[in-house]
MFS transporter (Actinoallomurus iriomotensis), 409 residues
Amino acid sequence: MTRLPRSVLDMAIDTLPAATAPTTTVAPPKLVSRALLLRFVSVIGSSIGFYLPLSVMPMFADQSGSGGGAGLATVTLLLATVACELVTPRLVGRVGYRWALALGLVLLGAPTAVLMVSGDPGVILVVSAVRGAGFAICVVAGGAITAALIPADRRGEGLALVGIVSGIPGLLALPAGVWAATRFGFTPVFVVTTVAPLLALVSVPGLPRRAASAPHLAASAPRRGVLGSLRNPALARPATIFAASTAAVGVLVTFLPLATRGQATWVATAALFIQPASSTVSRWIAGRIGDRRGQACLLAPGLILSAAGMAAFVCTSTPAAVLAGALVFGTGFGVLQNATLTLMYTRVAAREEGAVSAIWNAAYDLGMAAGAFCAGLTVTHLGYPATFALTAAVLLPALALVRRDRTSR
């Protein structure tokens, strides 16, 4: 057999296509895990338990002969929620996230059963206070667990997904509670409110143990605590920006139905549906954009959209303007919801998620309360259109915080 000269072989080899080294593509981290799916169960349970009776409790108090107690029940619920949100991280440090979440679900659901046998005004207030404490524990402890279960590279998208999971039940439960109470009475509402959070308890043991499966869920309390974290400008600025937008929500949900009394009844109902619906959608979009381009770049657009939407409510006599305002404001608010929360989580070390959750949720509740309270003082003197315009104007100074946040980091 004749062998080819070495030079011929070399020439033949040179004509072959060059071999390329195998390329490896790093797949993005998995977003939805089994533990996160189990966490969704408690998210849905707590959302139904909070929102289903939210508008029913004032109706129940009014029917029980306590006209003043109708508003007082909501105020009690809100104040108890804020107070417990600030101390829940300390509770978590003592008993752990899973036990704290279980306690919150029990406190949110079980006390409602008392209302099926008593409508005494004092009982209503006590039940409201205990339920507020339970909800605070659920959102703070549960929020910290959620943050630990989401990959850091996809945290914005993951938190947006959680916002959708919690937002849709709340969106449906709020009007459903009023409809059911009007059609079937209060008892069915109270039964579902009691059962939904308690059923969610079955998912808690499946959540990862803080020391083993989830390294973020460390055994000790948050390093700086809530007050220490509030002194951190990197957290205080996004929280303040978010509180400004939630103040506008408080004005909207409190006074829009009153401001549109001269219109068809569907106008306010549709606007109050469009606003949270658009917020839910924009949270998802903001989460995906923020993970790619950074959360800080979304703060200014969120504020501008919120202010523009609020300004549209000046035209309360025009249904199209009211609905458009709800859409634009809801979009901006959803962007701020996701961007501020994600930004705050990325600026803390492990074990401080509880403090972030407490601060963010307290900003939500305190902002809404402050907005409704301050607008109540001005609306009698300025009227509804001027109050909405003033609310829109108050949002704009928060842009200075956005600029300061960019230049300081």
Remarks:
- Residues 1-25, 211-222 have pLDDT under 50 and may be disordered.
- The chain has 16 helices and no strands.
- The two ends are 75 Å apart (CA to CA).
- Residues 314 and 388 are 6 Å apart (CA to CA).
